[in-house]
Amino acid sequence: MERHLTPSRRLLLAAGVSVLAVTAVACSSSKKSPSVTAPAAAAPAATTPATAAPTTAAPAPSSLAGSWNGNYSGQYNGTFSLTWTLTGSTLAGTIKLSAPAVTLSVNGTVAGSTIQFGTVGGAVSYTGTISGGSSMSGQYQVGTTGKGGSWSASKQ
């Protein structure tokens, strides 16, 4: 019977068999999926105590509040001045960039020696490390452009 099939019908027949095979595999794997996902859901509960430990990191040093001067390089280059207040582990203030010459609101958090802050609206985000309460450095990212570089600042 296969001798009477045109090449296009043979192709359609082969494609139909492939679709049936893929469908069968998909159906059979979806039946197994609840037993696969159940152990995965249990795994985070087992690791919760390990991830809870970093929240007990040293409190943010109160010396972070105030004025900082720094520079940034990479995709963009320039200087900045940063002034902020610290409430618990939450930072709030302003950053004045040299290029483009603009002053923006910033918010952030501090956990131990790790700092994260960014401009309101997410135009620029900064991550880094604090050293001794008088200097800090890290990386910056401009929105979702993939552009960024490094930054550093010293307490004034």
Provide a compact summary of the structure:
The protein has about 160 residues and is of the alpha+beta class. The chain has 1 helix and 8 strands.
Notable features of this structure?
eight-stranded antiparallel β-barrel; 29% helix; alpha+beta; 156 residues; Lipocalin; 8 strands
What do these coordinates show?
This protein is an alpha+beta fold and 156 residues long. It has two domains: 2-56; 62-155, Quinohemoprotein amine dehydrogenase alpha subunit, domain 2 (Lipocalin). 29% of the residues lie in helices and 45% in strands. The chain is built from one helix and eight strands. The protein has one helix at residues 7-52; strands at residues 66-74, 78-87, 90-98, 101-111, 114-119, 124-131, 135-142, 147-155. The longest helix is centred in the N-terminal third of the chain and has 46 residues, at 7-52. The protein is globular and about 30 Å long. The chain starts with 6 loop residues before the first helix and ends with a strand.
What kind of sheet is the major sheet? 8 strands, antiparallel, barrel
- Supply the CATH class of the largest domain: Mainly Beta
CATH superfamily of the largest domain: Quinohemoprotein amine dehydrogenase alpha subunit, domain 2
- Kindly name the structural category: alpha+beta
Bin the helical content: 25-40%
Q: Total domains, how many?
A: 2
CATH fold call of the largest domain: Lipocalin
**Backbone CA Rg:** 27 Å
Query: How many strand elements?
Result: 8
Q: What is the topology, as strand order, of the major beta sheet?
A: 1-2-3-4-5-6-7-8
Order of helices and strands: HEEEEEEEE
**CA-CA gap between termini:** 89 Å
Strand content: 35-45%
CATH architectural name of the largest domain: Beta Barrel
User: What's the tally of helices?
Assistant: 1
- Would you tell me the overall average pLDDT? 72
Spans of at least 5 consecutive residues with low confidence: 7-57
Q: Which shape, going by the Cα principal axes?
A: globular
